[in-house]
Amino acid sequence: MLLTAMSLPAQSFGNARLVQSAQPVASPSHYYVTVAAAKKRVVRRTKKKSAMIVGGSALGGAAIGGLAGGKKGAVIGALAGGGGGYVYDRKTQKKPIIPK
Question: 58-65, long-range: CB within 8 Å, 24+ apart, which pairs?
Answer without folding.
Answer: 58/82, 58/85
